[in-house]
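[audit] Reproducing an earlier prediction to check determinism. Same input, same settings, fresh worker. If the C-alpha coordinates differ from the archived copy the diff job will pick it up downstream; this log only records the rerun itself.
[audit] input (186 residues):
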Amino acid sequence: MEARRAERLVRELDAFGHWFAVPNPSDGGHILTVTLFAESPNAARVARDVTAVFLADAGAGEFVDDARLVVSELVGNVVNHVVPERDLARPGGARRIDMTFKVWPRWVFIGVADEDSSPPLLPLGDAFSPGLAGELSEAVLPDNGRGLFIVQRLASSVWWRPGDQGGKTIWCRFDRDGDATERKPC
Protein backbone atom coordinates (compact mmCIF):
# COMPACT_ATOMS: atom_id res chain seq x y z
CA MET A 1 0.00 0.00 0.00
CA GLU A 2 2.85 2.43 0.82
CA ALA A 3 4.50 1.77 -2.54
CA ARG A 4 1.26 2.58 -4.35
CA ARG A 5 0.87 5.83 -2.38
CA ALA A 6 4.47 6.76 -3.13
CA GLU A 7 3.89 6.10 -6.87
CA ARG A 8 0.79 8.28 -6.82
CA LEU A 9 2.69 11.07 -5.06
CA VAL A 10 5.47 10.92 -7.66
CA ARG A 11 2.88 11.18 -10.48
CA GLU A 12 1.16 14.11 -8.74
CA LEU A 13 4.49 15.93 -8.31
CA ASP A 14 5.35 15.28 -11.95
CA ALA A 15 1.97 16.69 -13.06
CA PHE A 16 2.42 19.69 -10.76
CA GLY A 17 5.85 20.39 -12.28
CA HIS A 18 4.41 20.26 -15.80
CA TRP A 19 1.55 22.59 -14.86
CA PHE A 20 4.11 25.39 -14.31
CA ALA A 21 5.90 24.75 -17.61
CA VAL A 22 5.03 25.78 -21.13
CA PRO A 23 4.53 22.68 -23.29
CA ASN A 24 7.18 21.99 -25.89
CA PRO A 25 5.77 20.99 -29.30
CA SER A 26 8.75 18.69 -29.89
CA ASP A 27 7.62 16.44 -27.00
CA GLY A 28 3.92 16.54 -27.89
CA GLY A 29 2.92 19.60 -25.86
CA HIS A 30 0.53 22.36 -26.95
CA ILE A 31 -0.60 25.62 -25.35
CA LEU A 32 -3.32 28.17 -26.08
CA THR A 33 -4.43 31.31 -24.26
CA VAL A 34 -7.68 33.09 -25.10
CA THR A 35 -9.32 36.20 -23.66
CA LEU A 36 -13.10 36.53 -23.70
CA PHE A 37 -15.35 39.13 -22.14
CA ALA A 38 -18.16 38.28 -19.73
CA GLU A 39 -20.52 40.85 -21.26
CA SER A 40 -20.45 39.11 -24.64
CA PRO A 41 -23.75 37.25 -25.13
CA ASN A 42 -21.83 34.36 -26.71
CA ALA A 43 -18.99 34.00 -24.16
CA ALA A 44 -19.92 30.50 -22.97
CA ARG A 45 -20.56 29.18 -26.49
CA VAL A 46 -17.30 30.60 -27.80
CA ALA A 47 -15.45 29.13 -24.80
CA ARG A 48 -16.94 25.67 -25.48
CA ASP A 49 -16.15 25.88 -29.20
CA VAL A 50 -12.55 27.01 -28.65
CA THR A 51 -12.10 24.18 -26.14
CA ALA A 52 -13.39 21.56 -28.58
CA VAL A 53 -11.34 22.75 -31.55
CA PHE A 54 -8.10 23.18 -29.60
CA LEU A 55 -8.28 19.83 -27.78
CA ALA A 56 -9.17 17.97 -30.98
CA ASP A 57 -6.31 19.67 -32.88
CA ALA A 58 -3.88 19.00 -30.00
CA GLY A 59 -4.69 15.29 -30.04
CA ALA A 60 -6.71 15.29 -26.79
CA GLY A 61 -10.09 14.64 -28.38
CA GLU A 62 -10.99 12.11 -25.69
CA PHE A 63 -11.54 15.02 -23.27
CA VAL A 64 -13.62 17.28 -25.52
CA ASP A 65 -17.03 16.52 -24.00
CA ASP A 66 -15.91 16.76 -20.34
CA ALA A 67 -13.69 19.77 -20.99
CA ARG A 68 -16.47 21.64 -22.83
CA LEU A 69 -18.76 21.16 -19.84
CA VAL A 70 -16.05 22.20 -17.36
CA VAL A 71 -15.19 25.35 -19.34
CA SER A 72 -18.88 26.19 -19.73
CA GLU A 73 -19.42 25.93 -15.96
CA LEU A 74 -16.33 28.01 -15.11
CA VAL A 75 -17.08 30.71 -17.68
CA GLY A 76 -20.72 30.74 -16.53
CA ASN A 77 -19.50 31.38 -12.98
CA VAL A 78 -17.54 34.41 -14.18
CA VAL A 79 -20.48 35.73 -16.20
CA ASN A 80 -22.99 35.27 -13.37
CA HIS A 81 -21.02 35.88 -10.18
CA VAL A 82 -17.74 37.77 -10.62
CA VAL A 83 -17.47 41.32 -9.36
CA PRO A 84 -14.06 42.73 -10.39
CA GLU A 85 -11.83 44.14 -7.71
CA ARG A 86 -11.65 47.91 -7.58
CA ASP A 87 -8.03 47.93 -8.85
CA LEU A 88 -8.92 45.74 -11.84
CA ALA A 89 -12.29 47.23 -12.81
CA ARG A 90 -12.57 49.94 -15.42
CA PRO A 91 -15.72 52.10 -15.53
CA GLY A 92 -17.80 50.85 -18.45
CA GLY A 93 -15.20 48.17 -19.15
CA ALA A 94 -15.93 44.54 -19.80
CA ARG A 95 -14.96 41.80 -17.35
CA ARG A 96 -12.09 39.68 -18.68
CA ILE A 97 -12.13 35.90 -18.81
CA ASP A 98 -8.67 34.53 -19.57
CA MET A 99 -8.56 30.86 -20.52
CA THR A 100 -5.36 28.81 -20.70
CA PHE A 101 -5.05 25.33 -22.17
CA LYS A 102 -1.94 23.17 -21.81
CA VAL A 103 -1.82 19.73 -23.38
CA TRP A 104 0.97 17.29 -22.60
CA PRO A 105 1.24 13.64 -23.59
CA ARG A 106 0.02 12.67 -20.08
CA TRP A 107 -2.12 15.65 -18.95
CA VAL A 108 -4.52 18.35 -20.05
CA PHE A 109 -4.60 21.51 -17.92
CA ILE A 110 -7.37 24.10 -18.26
CA GLY A 111 -7.33 27.42 -16.41
CA VAL A 112 -10.10 30.02 -16.31
CA ALA A 113 -9.08 33.36 -14.78
CA ASP A 114 -11.24 36.26 -13.65
CA GLU A 115 -10.82 39.62 -11.92
CA ASP A 116 -12.27 38.67 -8.53
CA SER A 117 -9.98 37.41 -5.75
CA SER A 118 -12.82 35.83 -3.76
CA PRO A 119 -12.10 32.13 -3.32
CA PRO A 120 -14.42 29.76 -5.14
CA LEU A 121 -16.86 27.97 -2.87
CA LEU A 122 -18.58 24.65 -3.33
CA PRO A 123 -22.06 25.26 -1.91
CA LEU A 124 -23.64 22.75 0.43
CA GLY A 125 -27.04 21.31 -0.36
CA ASP A 126 -30.10 22.28 1.63
CA ALA A 127 -30.76 20.04 4.62
CA PHE A 128 -33.66 17.64 4.10
CA SER A 129 -34.53 14.65 6.18
CA PRO A 130 -33.81 11.39 4.31
CA GLY A 131 -37.55 10.57 4.43
CA LEU A 132 -38.46 13.79 2.61
CA ALA A 133 -35.66 13.52 0.07
CA GLY A 134 -36.56 9.96 -0.90
CA GLU A 135 -34.53 8.70 -3.80
CA LEU A 136 -34.28 12.10 -5.48
CA SER A 137 -30.69 13.18 -4.92
CA GLU A 138 -31.60 16.49 -6.60
CA ALA A 139 -33.75 17.29 -3.58
CA VAL A 140 -30.66 17.94 -1.48
CA LEU A 141 -28.98 20.22 -3.99
CA PRO A 142 -29.71 23.92 -4.46
CA ASP A 143 -31.26 25.15 -7.71
CA ASN A 144 -27.97 26.80 -8.64
CA GLY A 145 -24.37 26.57 -7.53
CA ARG A 146 -23.69 23.05 -8.78
CA GLY A 147 -21.07 24.08 -11.35
CA LEU A 148 -17.97 23.54 -9.22
CA PHE A 149 -19.38 20.23 -8.01
CA ILE A 150 -19.67 19.13 -11.67
CA VAL A 151 -16.15 20.38 -12.40
CA GLN A 152 -14.74 18.43 -9.43
CA ARG A 153 -16.45 15.25 -10.63
CA LEU A 154 -15.23 15.47 -14.23
CA ALA A 155 -11.62 16.56 -13.72
CA SER A 156 -8.86 14.50 -12.10
CA SER A 157 -7.88 17.49 -9.99
CA VAL A 158 -9.26 21.02 -9.39
CA TRP A 159 -7.61 23.89 -7.53
CA TRP A 160 -7.46 27.65 -7.59
CA ARG A 161 -4.65 30.17 -7.39
CA PRO A 162 -4.82 33.89 -6.61
CA GLY A 163 -3.46 36.15 -9.34
CA ASP A 164 -0.30 38.20 -8.78
CA GLN A 165 -2.17 41.48 -9.39
CA GLY A 166 -5.52 40.29 -8.04
CA GLY A 167 -8.18 38.03 -9.41
CA LYS A 168 -7.86 34.24 -9.45
CA THR A 169 -7.55 31.27 -11.75
CA ILE A 170 -9.46 28.00 -11.38
CA TRP A 171 -7.29 25.16 -12.71
CA CYS A 172 -8.42 21.69 -13.74
CA ARG A 173 -6.28 18.72 -14.69
CA PHE A 174 -7.39 15.77 -16.77
CA ASP A 175 -5.11 12.73 -16.65
CA ARG A 176 -4.48 11.12 -20.03
CA ASP A 177 -2.79 8.10 -18.47
CA GLY A 178 -5.76 5.99 -17.34
CA ASP A 179 -3.99 4.64 -14.26
CA ALA A 180 -2.51 7.98 -13.11
CA THR A 181 -5.43 8.54 -10.74
CA GLU A 182 -8.64 6.70 -10.21
CA ARG A 183 -11.73 8.45 -11.56
CA LYS A 184 -14.09 9.59 -8.82
CA PRO A 185 -17.42 7.74 -8.87
CA CYS A 186 -20.46 9.90 -9.64
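[audit] rerun output stored. Observation attached for the diff report: The first strand starts at residue 30 and ends at 37.
[audit] end
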